[in-house]
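Intended use. Records such as the histidine kinase entry shown here are meant for training and evaluating sequence-to-structure methods. They are not intended to support clinical decisions.
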Amino acid sequence: MPSSDRHAELTRSGLNLIQQAISIFDADLRLAVCNRPYQQMFGLPDKLTRTGATFQDTIRYLVDRGEYGPQEDPEAAIRERVDQALTFQPHYLERRRADGRWISVEGAPLSQGGWIAVYTDITHIKRQEALLRARSAELSELVLENAERLSAANRALAATNAALEEAKRILTESEARTRHVTAMVPAHIAHMDREFRYTFSNNQISLVFPGTDPSVIGRRCEDVLGTETFVRLRPHLDRAVSGQSQVFEITHPPSGRRIRIALTPDQNGRGVYVLSTDVTAEVQAREALTHAAKRAVAAQMTSGLAHDFGNLLTIILGLQGRLARASLPPEQAEDVQATLAAARRGVRLLDGISALTGRREHQPQPVELRSMLDDLAAMTRPTLGAGVTLDTHIGDLPARVMLDPGALQDALLNLILNARDAMQGQGRIGIKIRPAGRWLEIIVSDSGPGFSPEALARATEPFFTTKGSQGTGLGLSMVYDQIKLSGGTLRLLNTEGGGAQVIIRLPLRAARPQLVLLVEDDDAIRAHIREMLTTQGHSVIEAGSLGEACGLTDLPGLTLILSDLQLGDGSGADLRGRGLPLVLMTALPPGDPRRSGLDCPVLTKPFDETELAVAMARTDD
């Protein structure tokens, strides 16, 4: 006999030992199980006690036998009892059967669907009540009635308690499942009372608002998220408490993340439900698609003109250059120089369009921020003029961080020149670089008039400019694209004291010095590359052959292998699979088949320090 059949037989045997009649019907009102007293109490045929028998057939059998007394419309009586059963409501009743015996019927719904009914013969209880009434004439009619009602009430109360216990169990299980599900959702789900104090949280708040203490129950929103964030939320919270649903987005100041918040009023008037989701990636993708679409339009508009325009500029520059070398009167010579300046400006505009529509690559390398800022200041001071002061400040940061220096320097140069133009040659520009958690925060501020509302909304769009014919509208758009390409964020705002402020956040990665195993069989090349590595702050262990290198790969502290691909005694590619990142070098051209299939960075000789740093940085990704 299979195990399931044995269990079912054990269940029936156990139920048959219970003196009360028991039946369990499933959600489709088909018999799941019953005991022998159930069949005996109602005189049911065997077919109505087998699993799968319908409740409707059972009721029809009982109505036909007169179980419920005479019925004017038997089919209506059957439908009424089936409809009542389909509601799956707990119930207790006492009724007198056609043979004069009394039974109590106690029904309770089941969490899996369906219900269980327990039938108890209470004829002896009813007879005792009648005997008590007959033999106790001295008792008042009121006492007897109260005793009967109390007895019935006690039986009903016992049934109700059983139903309540089952309901409590179901609710407890449901609440546990709900908490488990909400804890798995990558969003913060919470409830706040009318004083904006948390009464429920799925403990995911720190996932959405980094740096927030996840223990929020009983605390006010302002204390949990900070005053700055709460001030932004307060108008929406007030409207939600008054009954208006709210969906909006804010930028979380400490982390720079974009958060979408949905507020749903509590229908009982006890506060508001909160759903907060980090949509930073979605917003960045949306903005990137918007900018990509605009760049595509720009490319379509300019691709047909750029070639011819470039040729025309080449001719104009050549002719004007020839005139500039000729002996011309001062006035004509001045016109020639003005024409040359205009043509050169056209060349720069073409370069900007090419950079805007072309594909760029992010090339991080170790950068000394102080040295980069000093170079930037030296490059921009001649163009700022005597009336503009440039201040720079660097906070407590690693000596070298991983950045794309060219892209960052171009971005800062654009921002500095924009600030100069906005201040009309008089004022102060500040560049502050500091750590902000996992971000490197760069703040460029000026003492000018600040951004207009339109500029705050559209400044990063290609070809948007507030400079009229003097501007191309490419500067901030290129800055925005460079920062996004680096995995960062950019915010434009006006400071309270006046002036514009641009906040750039880039991933903060310290450039860690490495212990490099340098494998090269040419002594002169090995010495040159060793100097490159030590200049960048790395330590070097040298090997002149593949065999020598294989004996050194297990040295403690070794972090990277930099090897020539073609060694005298083998291939540098054989150093793969030794638990260390590998960068290969070769003089073979990129299309050579001997370079194909290599799953590690490959440098083409000759290369410079920047290319070397970029290749080594790729091993950290």
